[in-house]
Specification:
The complex is a heterodimer of chains A (129) and B (201).
Chain A lengths: L7 H20 L9 H22 L6 H28 L4 H27 L6
Helix pairs in contact in A: 1-2, 1-4, 2-4, 3-4
Chain B lengths: L1 H5 L22 H17 L2 H31 L3 H36 L10 H33 L6 H29 L6
Helix pairs in contact in B: 2-4, 3-4, 3-6, 4-5, 4-6, 5-6
Classes of the chains: A mainly alpha (129), B mainly alpha (201).
Chain lengths: 129, 201
């Protein structure tokens, strides 16, 4: 189990932190419309880290892909449902425009990052396929 | 007595862990559905009593559980033998996999709705800074929970299901789980300080 694996948790947590900071920034302005620049910058950085994480992960050798996908599949389902409910709440509360786009992107980041973190956290300790 | 001192020590039987049928304890799911259903109903009806109940009960259980794990059970587990630690983990971790997400959802869902209902989210609220501070504390706790706590919890459950579990790995992951639970418990104290600065209307 001492094989060398890419820094998936570090990249995933960094992406999550940027998403959370962006969301908190937007939430602090309720009910006013915030300047979107900082939130856009944070979400772009978060998205870049998320994509980089997926690319690095896809290149991992000697990895328990079976276990990874078993965990990721169910977690993705759960978090997609949660993200869907939150998106409904945003629409129900008449969130529109740039704020809606940013909140939707933050939900996508959340729904992809969490399954990757949980599935990698389990699969890294399993024997490689 | 002589026989006791001269006899070869008996071979300890191999440790058999209490292996759950599934990673997620399915029997607990109806209770989770009932709790979350009640939360959704309380949000939809804006029942102040129910929202307060969910927020206080959920927050109390969450805080107490975090502090108990980190400050009481953690040091005790550190002194147990690896098989004893693994045996305790095999019974504790499946329950925590269900309890933690449920109490967190109870607390945060009801808390956000209370803040929204009473206008605490508005920038015009004179103690808005405290609300933003609570967002930041929750954000840090969420990062710790998603990045460290839950992966360790799941990894322990998967390891226990192996024919030959690695007790050393289980012990390492459990320490990580218990001590990060303690850190979030201490952060809960910060949340309690913030919450008690927000007056009840």
């Amino acid at each position: 189990m001492n094989r060398r694996l890419p820094p998936i948790p570090e990249l995933g947590v960094a992406s999550m932190v940027l998403t959370i900071v962006s969301t908190i920034y937007l939430a602090t302005y309720i009910p006013k419309h915030p300047p979107l620049g900082p939130a856009v910058g944070l979400m772009v950085a978060s998205g870049v880290l998320l994509l980089a994480n997926l690319v690095v992960l896809s290149r991992a050798r000697e990895f328990a892909w079976g276990t990874f996908f078993t965990v990721a599949r169910w977690t993705l389902l759960a978090y997609a449902v949660i993200a869907g409910m939150l998106e409904f709440v945003f629409l129900y509360d008449h969130t529109r425009g740039g704020v809606l786009v940013l909140m939707t992107l933050s939900l996508v980041s959340f729904a992809v990052n969490v399954p990757v973190l949980l599935a990698f956290g389990v699969a890294r300790y399993q024997a490689a396929d | 007595m002589a026989t006791a001192t001269t006899a070869a020590p008996a071979q300890a039987p191999p440790l058999r862990l209490s292996v759950p049928d599934s990673i997620v304890p399915l029997k607990a799911l109806p209770l989770v559905v009932a709790v979350i259903g009640g939360l959704i109903a309380s949000i939809a009806t804006n029942s102040i009593w129910a929202l307060n109940f969910y927020h206080v009960a959920g927050g109390g259980i969450w805080t107490a559980l975090d502090l108990f794990l980190g400050l009481v059970l953690g040091p005790i587990m550190g002194r147990l033998s690896p098989p004893a630690r693994a045996e305790l983990s095999s019974r504790l971790m499946p329950a925590l996999l269900v309890i933690f997400p449920t109490v967190v959802t109870m607390t945060l869902g009801s808390g956000f709705q209370l803040a929204r209902y009473f206008g605490f989210l508005n920038t015009s609220y004179d103690r808005h800074g405290y609300v933003v501070a609570s967002f930041i504390v929750v954000g840090i706790m969420a990062t710790i929970a998603i990045g460290i706590l839950e992966p360790a919890n799941l990894a322990v459950l998967f390891e226990m299901r192996k024919p030959q579990p690695n007790f050393e790995l289980i012990g390492k992951l459990m320490r990580r789980f218990i001590y990060t639970a303690g850190i979030t418990g201490v952060m809960q104290i910060a949340t309690l300080i913030i919450m008690t600065r927000l007056p009840t209307p």
